[in-house]
């Protein structure tokens, strides 16, 4: 039974990703053909009265706008700054969420998340994002000014609807919205890591997204994403190819001066570093701390022994003073760079949320309902 459940969960994950991809492609085609800019606009005419309770089923002067992938935002804003929101998207499993942020970043934002559990019951809760690991995403907390109207979640066909009502002190205008989803169902209301996400700056007074900032990734900027890819590429080439290749060449193609101890040891721990990637526990696992210690210190030992191995090689080969000075200069430059960067990292002030003028008041009212 457990194997069947895992297989079904895997199929649901791929079905969700495929459906989202097809929706994204279809929206691009519609835009290129000069239609209404997005095929999802046709979904705005869906009759909500058949599966959503009042007031979510009846939105006066409703604004309906596509946001991202298959996400569709419906809302109605009254004169007393009360806004009723219905967010819909394609759904097969896992959770979907929308967050309100002060600065467009995930940290310290408040989110509404909905899902259907393994018993087929709908769940919708508010979460406060205090950090980047699942353990730091707190359920039943947040600063969204929810009204006394209970939030509601419903699944109609292949679409999930998250409905909630907020009341602000002033008219809600441009607001950074965080959109994210995961195909893994929360366990005991604990969210799993998102599989995709974005940030959109939406002007609720005009009923449209800010084109200049729509789709900005607040979780990891393009520069950071590029750095991570570069780091991964260099790690694979350096630890997974060049170091093992160098050790193999030195072991089997050399004819004299058989000083292999450091090289063989380096080859061993280099392979262990690569293998450790596949055994890395999740970020909120109790074993992650020990894995981090192992990964960091073995990496440092590799770098240190690599430098020692090069110095020994230059000495044994009697390469001359020029090689020693050249490598010494390179090694000194790298050490100075590391010291400076480490000092800057430790002196960098920690990011603090701007609590002086929050865009929404604190209200921790949360609801949990069943379909």
Automatic annotation (TrEMBL):
<keyword id="KW-1133">Transmembrane helix</keyword>
<keyword id="KW-0812">Transmembrane</keyword>
<dbReference type="Pfam" id="PF03351">
    <property type="entry name" value="DOMON"/>
</dbReference>
<keyword id="KW-0732">Signal</keyword>
<keyword id="KW-0249">Electron transport</keyword>
<feature type="transmembrane region" description="Helical">
    <location>
        <begin position="323"/>
        <end position="345"/>
    </location>
</feature>
<keyword id="KW-0813">Transport</keyword>
<keyword id="KW-0472">Membrane</keyword>
<feature type="domain" description="DOMON">
    <location>
        <begin position="69"/>
        <end position="184"/>
    </location>
</feature>
<dbReference type="InterPro" id="IPR045266">
    <property type="entry name" value="DOH_DOMON"/>
</dbReference>
<protein>
    <submittedName>
        <fullName>Cytochrome b561 and DOMON domain-containing protein-like protein</fullName>
    </submittedName>
</protein>
<feature type="transmembrane region" description="Helical">
    <location>
        <begin position="234"/>
        <end position="253"/>
    </location>
</feature>
<feature type="transmembrane region" description="Helical">
    <location>
        <begin position="259"/>
        <end position="278"/>
    </location>
</feature>
<feature type="signal peptide">
    <location>
        <begin position="1"/>
        <end position="31"/>
    </location>
</feature>
<dbReference type="InterPro" id="IPR006593">
    <property type="entry name" value="Cyt_b561/ferric_Rdtase_TM"/>
</dbReference>
<dbReference type="InterPro" id="IPR005018">
    <property type="entry name" value="DOMON_domain"/>
</dbReference>
<dbReference type="GO" id="GO:0016020">
    <property type="term" value="C:membrane"/>
</dbReference>
<feature type="transmembrane region" description="Helical">
    <location>
        <begin position="298"/>
        <end position="317"/>
    </location>
</feature>
């Amino acid at each position: 039974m457990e194997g069947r459940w895992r297989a079904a969960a895997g199929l649901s994950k791929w079905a969700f990703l495929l459906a989202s991809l097809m929706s994204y492609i279809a929206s691009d085609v519609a835009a290129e053909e000069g239609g209404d800019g997005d095929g999802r606009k046709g979904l705005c005419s869906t009759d909500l009265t058949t599966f959503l309770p009042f007031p979510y089923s009846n939105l006066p002067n409703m604004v309906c706008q596509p946001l991202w992938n298959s996400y569709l935002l419906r809302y109605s804003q009254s004169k007393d700054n009360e806004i009723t929101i219905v967010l819909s998207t394609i759904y097969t499993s896992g959770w979907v969420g929308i967050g309100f942020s002060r600065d467009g970043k995930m940290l310290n934002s408040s989110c509404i998340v909905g899902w259907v559990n393994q018993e087929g019951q709908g769940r919708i809760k508010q979460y406060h994002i205090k950090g980047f690991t699942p353990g730091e995403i707190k359920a039943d907390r947040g600063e969204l000014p929810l009204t006394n109207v209970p939030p509601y979640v419903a699944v109609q066909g292949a679409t999930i609807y998250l409905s909630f009502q907020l009341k602000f002190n002033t008219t809600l205008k441009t607001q950074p919205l965080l959109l994210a989803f995961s195909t893994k169902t929360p366990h005991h209301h604990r969210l799993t890591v998102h599989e995709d996400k974005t940030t959109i700056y939406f002007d609720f007074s005009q009923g449209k997204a800010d084109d200049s900032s729509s789709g900005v990734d607040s979780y990891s900027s393009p520069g950071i994403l590029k750095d991570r890819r570069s780091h991964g590429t260099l790690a694979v080439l350096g630890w997974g190819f060049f170091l093992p290749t160098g050790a193999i060449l030195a072991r089997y193609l050399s004819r004299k001066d058989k000083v292999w101890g450091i090289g063989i040891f380096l080859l061993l721990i280099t392979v262990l570093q690569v293998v450790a990637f596949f055994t890395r526990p999740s970020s909120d696992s109790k074993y992650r701390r020990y894995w981090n210690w192992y990964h960091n210190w073995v990496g440092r030992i590799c770098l240190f022994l690599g430098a020692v191995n090069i110095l020994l090689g230059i000495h044994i080969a009697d390469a001359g003073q020029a090689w020693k000075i050249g490598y010494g200069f390179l090694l000194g430059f790298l050490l100075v760079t590391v010291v400076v960067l480490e000092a800057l990292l430790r002196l960098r002030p920690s990011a603090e949320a701007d609590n002086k003028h929050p865009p929404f008041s604190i209200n921790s009212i949360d609801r949990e309902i069943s379909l």
